[in-house]
C-alpha cells in the first residue's frame, strides 16, 4: 500500500504505487489515437492521469472503482499536477489491496460513532421522538455509518455523515447546558435525521453521484415523506411528527437554500446553526491544515470563495 | 336576502339587510366602553362595521360564521367605507337565509366541475398516473369541489380550487394540440393534484386560515408525501410516482417561491406556466371588471403591484 | 449535398462533404506557421475545424458565407468534436450546392407561414390595428419570412421569426377561446409586430450579428418608433397606436429584461406569457429530441441553466 | 398675498391669507356629515386642511387649481401640521392674486434660462446635432421654460426643467475643459434633449400628473421616437441621429432604472453622471437649507432614504 | 414600587403606580388644547399614555428620565393598550423610588459578569492579546457593566452588553473543547472587545440613542481605531494587533452588514457565529416566554420577520 | 531602449529589445523539462513569454523586477499574443536601461502634481483640516507622488494616485464654483486623503500586491485610524476630525462597496461622485484611445463589462 500518498508528491517525482480509479473517460488525441483520462485517488487525495494510446482492452480494464498499480512521473499541466503513466496494470487478489484502503475516512471509528448516536437516543425522554429516531437508525444503520455527508465541500469522506452527526450531537449537548430552554429530544432527533435523506439521494459511498430521485425530489422532501411513513408504521401521531418533519424541512434555513419553510421552532433555528458551524469548522480545519503559518488557504467555494489566513503567532502560546 | 349587495352601496346610503359575520374583534372605546369591530360580507364583497357599546351578550351572539340582520348607514373612515350599525339582530331559522348564500362562488357549478375533472381522468392512458389521480379525487371529492384555491389573490372563492383545475385542464388540452410532444397524462395528473395539499393546509371553505401543519410544512411537501403514501397503498411503483411528485414539488417554479426543485421535466415547466396564466387571468379579469374603460385598476399586489389599464376602444369592434 | 449531416458523425469517423463556412479566424501555430480556425455548418449542426499551414490564398478563399468541400477526420479536442482537415477546396457552380441548403430552417414552409399570418390579419375587426399590422407585413414581407427569431437560444433558424409568430398566433387563438375577455385584435397585432424590430437589429439571415443601431438602441425602442411613424403615414391616431406601442415596449415583461414599462394591459401580459411559452417549448423540444429516454439534456443557458429529464415511461402509453 | 408663507407657521398659530388649492377630496365624518380634505399650497410649501360640514356649494367652489382666502388655526394631527379652517371664501378678481404667485419657481428667470440654452446651441459646431436641438427648443419653447423637471424629488418647481438643463450645461462646460476628449456638441445636445419627453409625459406645470402615454410608454421611448421624427422632417441622416437617440435612451444608466441600453458612449456615460450630480445637489441643498448646523435633514427617499448632517464648523471659515 | 408591572395589566384595569418617563412629546388636540404623549416604562415593559390639556408646568415637569406617580385606566387605541391618565404627580425623594428600579436588567449581577470576564482574561496565555484586552476592560469597566448590547432586538437592557459577552465566552469555551484547533486567546479577546465601540456609539444606559460619531463612523471602525491606539500606548506591535482589529472589523460577517472585510480567520468566522447564536437565543427565549404552548410569537423583525411556534408537547417530558 | 513598444507588435513580428520581468513562474512541460512563464512589460504594455528548457540558473536570473534583453517572435496562443523566446540575457549596467523606463507613468510630472496639491492645501481656510492634510502630505510625500491609484482598472501607473488626486481637485474647484454651498476645505481634504491608506495597503510602486494588513483590514479603516492618530498628535479635536474620517470612510458610497457608512454629508456625497467621474474618464479615455472611430472598445470589467463605441463623426467638427 501507498506509504506516502499522492498529496505529498512534488512535480518531477517518480510515482510507483497502487491507486483507486475514481473515473475513466475516453478521448482521441491530435494524432488520432485514443487515450484515457483517469482520475486516481488514495487516502491523501486525487490526481488526474493520462494513459496515451489506450487499447480497447485498457478501456475495459481500467474503469471506475477498480484498483491499479501505476508507474509514472508527476508533471504539471495548466498549473495543476498530472500523472504521466509509463506503465499500468490491474491489481490482483494477491496484491492484498482493497478499495476501502484508498478512500479518505472519518478520524473516528464506526463503532465509536455508533456508540455516541445510540447514547444520544438513549438519553431521549420523549417516547415518540425516541421511537422514530431509533427506527431510522436501525433500518439504515449500515449506510448511516459509511456514507459521506456530502459529495464535496464538507465531511465528504467515508463515515462523514455519522461523523457530522456526532459532532453536532456534541455541540447540541453544550448548547442545552448553556440554553436550558432548548428541547434536547427534538434537537437530538433533528440532528440524527436531518440528512438521512442523503442515503437515498446519493448513489453510494466510494464515488457518490446523485440518484434520479435525488435530482428530481431531493433529500429534504424525501426525508419528510419517510418520517411520515415511519410514524404511521409505528402508530405514532401528534405534534412530534409534524415538528420533526419541520426540523428536517427547515434545516437549510431559507427557501433559496432548499428549505421551503424557514425554521419556525427554537430548536429548528439551532439545528440550522449547529449544522452550519460543524460544516464550516470541518472545511476550515482541513483547509488550514494544508498551509503553513503566515499563508492563506486556497479559495473555498463553500465559504463564499474566501481565502483564510493562518496567523504566525498562534503556535507560541496555545498548546 | 340582499338584493343589491354591499359592494354597490354609496357613502351616505342607508343599509338594511342580512350579512355574514366574517370576524368579530372586541375593543374599548375612548369613553371606556367596549365595542365590536365586525367584518361583514355578502356575495358582492366585505365591509367593516362598528357596534358601539356592545354588551356581553352581543359579544357572544355576534361571532364569526354567524348571520345577522343589520340596519345602519354607510360612512367613510380613513378613505374606506364603514358601516355604522344602528340596530342588529341574529338571523333566525324563519329568516330563510344560510351562510352559503353570502360567500362568493365559482361561476361554474360543482357538477360541471366534477364532470370535467372525471372526463380528464377518463382520457388518461397511463394506468399508474390514472389510478393515483382517481384515488385522490375519490378521497377528497367533497373538499376538492368546495375549497378556494387560495386565501387571497386568485380563485379565492367557494369552489375556486376546482374552477382553477378545470381552467388549467382546458388550457392543457390546447397546449397538447399545439405541442404534441407533451405527455398529456402527466400534465393532467399534475394539474389535478398540484394544489390538493391545500385541502390540509387551509382550515376550511368559508373563512380559511392556515393549519399548524400548513404553517410548518406547507402544501407542497405535504402533497409530495401523500402521493408517496397513496402509491404505496395502491401498490404502484416506478418512475411515474417520482415524476408526479416532481410535478407537484416544482410547480411554484423556483426555490424562493417554495419549490425546492425547479421544473426539470417539459411537463413540469408547462404545469408551472399554465398555473401562472390561469391565476393571472383570473386576477386580471376580476380587477378589470370593476373599472370603466379609460380607467386603471387598483394596484394588484400579486401582479408586482401593477395597476392595469382598460382601453377605451375595445368596446367598438370586438364583441 | 450532405446525406448524413455533421451532427451524426462519431469521433474517429472520416468526413467527406460540402459545408458552409460560418466564420474563419486566423492564428499562428507554435511552429510559427499560420492556420485557420473555421466554424463549419450544415443543416444538422456545427463543428470547429483547423486548417493547418494555411496559405495567403486559403485565407482569401475560405471566408464566412462561402461553401467548401472538405475531406478530413472527426477528432476530439477538450471534450468537443473537432474536424481535422486533410483537404479542402471551394465549391464551384457545377457542384450544384447553395448556402441555403446548409442552414437550419423552420419545419413549416414560407408559404404556409405567410398564409397563417395573412389569415390572422384578415380576422382583425379593428381597422386601425389591422391597417398598421398589414402595412408592416407588406413592407417587411421578405425579411419577415426568412429571418431567425434570435441569434441563439430559440427559433434561431431560417424563418424562425415567422415560425415563432405563427405558433404564438395559434396559442392566442386558443387563449381567446378560453378567456373571451381578451381583445383578439390587440393580441394578434402585438404578436405579429412584437419582434419585427429584429429585422433592423440583426444584420441578416445566414449568420446574423447585431447592427450598430441594434447595439445602441435595440429592437424594442426601434419598433416603438416605427409604429409611430407608420401610424402617422397612414393618418391613424388614437389610443390604438399607444396601446400597440405599449404591447411591443412591454413584451419582455420587466425593466431588467429590456422593457422600460412592464405590461399594463391584460393583452400585454398575455403577449409576454405567450412569447415565453413558445420560446420555452421550442428550446425544450429541440433539446429533448437529442437525448434518449432516461437521460438528461445538456444544461440550457436560457432555461436558467437547467438540465431536463426525459422519462422512460412516456413511450408506453401515449403515441 | 401671503407675507410669511405656510412653512414658517408654528403649531398654534392663527392663519389668515390666500392659498392655492392643490387637491380637494370629499369625505363623510363620523357624525354622518360631509367634509372636504384640501391640500393647500403657497410658494413656501403645503399643508393639509379640513373643511368640516362642507355644503354642496363648497364642493363645487373649492376645487383644485382655485385660490381661496382662509382663516383658521394651525393644529397637529398624527405628528403633522394641519390647518383647521374657521372660514373660507373663493378669491375674486379684485383680490389681485393669481395662481402663479403660489407655486415654487426656479431661482433664475425664464429669460436667463433661455439665453443660456440659446448660447449653448450657438456654440455647437456639428450642424446635424445643432439643427435637431434647435428645432426641439423652437417647437417646445414655452413648455420647456415652465415645466418642472419632475413630479417630486428634484427641480419639482416651475421652470425646474430649464433650470436643471442650464445647470447641467454649466457642468458640461467645465467637464469639457478638464477632459478635452469629450465631444461637447453631443453632450450639449444630450443635455438639452434628455428630459424633453417629460413635456408629454406630464400633464402640466402647476399640479403635474402622468398622461396616459406617459404611463404606458414613458418619456424616454417617447423622446427617442420624436428625435427620429424630427430628424426625418429636417432631412438629417447618419450616425448623429442614432447617437443622440442613444444619449436619451441610456441616460438613466441601467435597465432597472428605465434605460433599455446602458450608456455605450463616453458622452452618454457623462450625461448620466451630470444628470445625477445636478439632481443630487438640488435635493441636498434644499434639504440642508431647512435645518440648522448640528442637525440632520429629514430622510430623503431619492437619496436611498438617507438623512444628511449639516456640520457646525462650516460657518466659521468658509464664506 | 410597582408590584405587578404594566405588562400584566388587562384592558379596562385601573392603574395606580410609579413609572419612568422614557419620552414626552407635545401635541395639540382637535379642540386646540395642548396634550402630552408620554412613553412610560417599568421593569416589565412600556405603555403609551396621553395627558390631555397639559399645562406649561406639566410640559416642564414630565420629561424623559423623570419618575411620576400615575393614576388612570388601561384602554385600547388601534389595537394597542394605552394609558388614560386621570391624575399624575412627579415622584419625590420621600417616595423612595429610583430610575434604575424601572428598567429591565440582565438576569445576572454586575459582580458575576465582571468575575467571569476577569476569569477569561486570566486564562489567556498570549501576553499581547491579554494586555490589550485587560486595558480596555480597565478603562471602560463601569460602562461595560451597565450598557445594553443594542438599542433594540437583543440584550437591549441594563448590563446587556456584559451579559452578551459572558454568554459568548461560555459558548467559546465549549467550542474550544470540541474544536481544539481554535485559538482560545484570540477568540476570547475578540468576544470581549467586539462590541465595545458601542460604549461610544450609544449615548447612555437608560434611554440610549446614537451619538454623532456613532452615526457618521459607527462602532466597528471606532473600535478598530481604538485598538490601534491602545496597542501603541502599551508599546505592543505585531500580528496580534492586526488580527484583533480584523476580528472586530469582520464580526458582522458581510460588507452589507457593516463589516468591510468578511471573516478571514477561523476565529473570526467563529466569533461571527457565536455572536449570531447568542443574539438569536436571547431574542427567541424572550419572545417564546411571552406566549403559551400551542401559540406563535409575534413577528420578530430581527429574525427575518418570522413568527415562532411553541410546541404543546415539550412540557411533558423535558424538565 | 525599446523604440516602438510591445503593444505595437503584430503576430509574426520579430522582437529584439529590453523588457522588465513582471513575474516569473516555473512549470514542467509535457516532455518533463522545466520552463519559465514570464510576464514581460515595457511602457506600452505587457506580453506573456515562454522560456522553454529553463536551467536552474535561468530560474535564479530571470525573476520579477529584473530587466532582460530578449530576442524572439510574437506568436499567438488561444487568441492572445505570446512571445516565443529564442535568446535571452540579463541587462547589465552598461546597457544603460533602468526599471523605471519600463513602466507606465502619469502624463504629468511629479513636480507639477506636488505643486497643485500644495496649492490646494494653501487655499484651505479651516486650520484644523489644513494642518491634518498638510501633515499627511509631508509624511507620505515620496510614496504619494509615485504610487499607482489602484492595482488595476484606473490610474494603475506610476504617480497614478497623485494624478487622480489632482484631477479630482480640479473637478472640485469647478463644482465649488457651480455649487457655492459646498465646503471647499472639507472637499479638498477628503480628496487628498481619501485613498492614502493605499500606501499601506499596497506593497510598492512597480508591481504592487496587497499587504497582510491590506487584506485583513483594508485601506479605508486603516486611513480612518490614522486620521485619528494624526489629529491626536497635532492636538486637534472637534467635529472636523470626525467629518474627515467620515469623508474617507464613506467614499466608496455603499456598504457592499466597502464603506460601512454611506455618505451623510453633502461633501461626502460629492467626494464619492468626483472619485467615480475621474476613475471612469480615465478608463474610458484610455480604452477609446486604443480603437479607431467606428469600433467598439474591448469589454471593460470595471465599467459593468460594457464595450463602448467610438463614433465616426466626432472628428469632423470638434477640434
Automatic annotation (TrEMBL), chains A, B, C, D, E, F:
<dbReference type="InterPro" id="IPR003607">
    <property type="entry name" value="HD/PDEase_dom"/>
</dbReference>
<dbReference type="InterPro" id="IPR006674">
    <property type="entry name" value="HD_domain"/>
</dbReference>
<keyword id="KW-0378">Hydrolase</keyword>
<dbReference type="Pfam" id="PF01966">
    <property type="entry name" value="HD"/>
</dbReference>
<dbReference type="InterPro" id="IPR050798">
    <property type="entry name" value="YhaM_exoribonuc/phosphodiest"/>
</dbReference>
<protein>
    <submittedName>
        <fullName>3'-5' exoribonuclease YhaM</fullName>
    </submittedName>
</protein>
<feature type="domain" description="HD">
    <location>
        <begin position="164"/>
        <end position="280"/>
    </location>
</feature>
<dbReference type="InterPro" id="IPR004365">
    <property type="entry name" value="NA-bd_OB_tRNA"/>
</dbReference>
<dbReference type="InterPro" id="IPR012340">
    <property type="entry name" value="NA-bd_OB-fold"/>
</dbReference>
<dbReference type="Pfam" id="PF01336">
    <property type="entry name" value="tRNA_anti-codon"/>
</dbReference>
